[in-house]
Amino acid sequence: MIFDGIASRSNDTKLSRRSFLYSGAAAGGGLLLSLSLPFGQTKAAALEDFTPNAFIRIAGDGRVVLTMPYVEMGQGTYTSIPMLLAEELEVSLSQVHLEHAPPNEKLYANPMLGVQATGNSNAIRGGWQPLREAGATARVMLVAAAARRWAVDPTACRARDGEVIHEPTGRRLKYGELVADAALLPFPEKVTLKRPEDFQLIGTSAKRLDAPGKVNGTARYGIDGRPPNVKIATLAQSPVFGGRLRSLDDSAARAVRGVRQIVRLDDAVAVVADHMWAAKKGLKALVIEWDDGPHSGLDTTQIARELEQATLGSGAVAQNVGDVDKALAGAVTKVDAMYQVPFLAHATMEPMNCTVHLRKDGCEIWIGSQAVARVQGMAAKAAGLPPEKVIVHNHLIGGGFGRRLEADGAVRAVEIAKHVDGPVKVVWTREEDIQHDMYRPYWFDRISAGLDKQGKPVAWKNRFAGPSVIARWLPPAFKNGLDPDSTEGAIDLVYELPNFHVEFVRVEPPGIPTAFWRSVGPSHNVFVTESFVDELASAARQDPVAYRRMLLDRNPRAKAVLDLAAEKSSWGDPLPTGRGRGVALQFVFGSYMAQVVEVEVSKDGNVRVVRVVCAIDCGTVVNPDTVQAQVQSGIVFGATAALYGEITLKNGRVEQTNFDTYQMMRMNEVPAIDVHIVKSTAAPGGMGETGTSLIVPAIANAIFAATGKRLRKMPVDSNILKRSV
Fold this sequence. Notes:
The chain is of the alpha+beta class. Helices cover 29% and strands 23% of the residues. It has three domains: 4-202, Aldehyde Oxidoreductase, domain 4; 222-293 and 352-427, Aldehyde oxidase/xanthine dehydrogenase, molybdopterin binding domain (Aldehyde Oxidoreductase, domain 4), CATH 3.30.365; 301-343 and 439-721, Aldehyde Oxidoreductase, domain 4.
């Protein structure tokens, strides 16, 4: 999800085995394998001084514990990451137990991001090599320990199902019986990882380890944090970003049974009560007058105009190949277009929440966060405490999508907790959650291309304007005016384009906070690029699939997924009136994907997505079931945005309030989704966000095929379409 551009740093980092594995006698007698990923601590003088980034602990009872530096928010991380370890360690998946990693930016940094965060669809990509090596090293040491005890050659022994077997005699020792001996052995200088053809677990549809708890109710999310004597609070924040509380009459709220306290902040009011119902009832009884502040006149139209105007100037060059201006001047046909995408809310199933117990000498927090160290740091600052005095209990997340990479909810909860004696759980109402989100940025693109007499593109020029989330979230990664997250999907396209030029103009709209949103940059850029490729195919009077194939001779993996999606969707077969197929292709998050979408457009302009056929090459697949689930999830999330998603402002206020005005795709609207996975031995690519970015242009292109109407702005406007049916 975030800053793919800084991933290149980790590719140049050379890890020796000794730099990330440390062996010693663990407390209680056991083998402790400490995994220190890039950018974390890599040396330690003694075991008691070494806190691992991510570690594997094998106890005397054979229990294998993996402390996870990533978080589970529905993407299957808590199953697929243990599969990497279990494969090489030769244990069953059921033997691996998980612990949430505590906040520690130095020790638990994501190897592809450099910070402790889960995002950018890179948990598998980051853990693929180190976790397998950790498992293989443990296995080799356990085998060596058994061989030494039996006084036999280690090559005559093998590991299987959590025990070591001496093949000539059939003698067996369980891992738990060997950990004390193994802990005393030196590290092997080199271990051999399994060949793909020898995988027993990787590549299988292993059952989700987190599923039983989610079914029986024992799974704990952030909102389930409930320390003893906790009070429940909900809040009203200034309806205009940057506004302040002018006056408050809380007499009626204090009279509500169960309400214990009213907390006044500069820009918010919280009602603290015995339970959520009393807190909500008390909140409704408040009489609040707000000072709207400097952004009281802000509206979306104004922001769009500012972004459009910015694209008339110049921006930071994100990529340049050849001489675009010269090629455009000599082109036979020129195609120009302007595209724009709206602000979008995250609207997670689990609304924003955080439980805080603030004391004079410390603070304890219960939350579900994608960036737990960030929560600790910002909460500590808000509480006026050193970070080490803030304990953060991280839990499962009921929908992240980038929203929980932010720590504003924790900071707000700390501000409220300062006025409360004892623990307080702050739960945002759905209205507060939507109207005080940190939104997917609004972007505006000005794009043009030149075609030769065969219709082939000889020039491509794109300048787009919008904010930079990276510049705020991780300033060191914003360099030379470029946000690598915002440019992904706009540069390094899969197509052969001899003259190519892309510019990014940073424009920060006033009065509305922006943040990462599932697939972030590609959610904008792939819509623009794939819609525009379709425009070029139309201008060249060529079939959209055939046109793309013509530009993919040097990219066989991209061509393969395109061909597979076209074949499985029966591309080219006739459709009834009012129906159309659209295609889109991308390479983002390290994965190739093609989608063919079939839509039906009614006479009144309403669009129904009938079917989606998706072909994916994400390299080596760890769990096919997880891949399929993530494709389906991403498609539903992106299709919802394409059909309905839009946050608008009027008089400084977000107009959408709940799911009646910020609509979700209903179950009866979900299309048939066919997922086809290309077998590959390449390194794994990302999967959590790929489906979201591609479905939007595929829908737009299908609508064009059905109606002849080109949509250059999302979401779909039925008023435009009904005039063309």
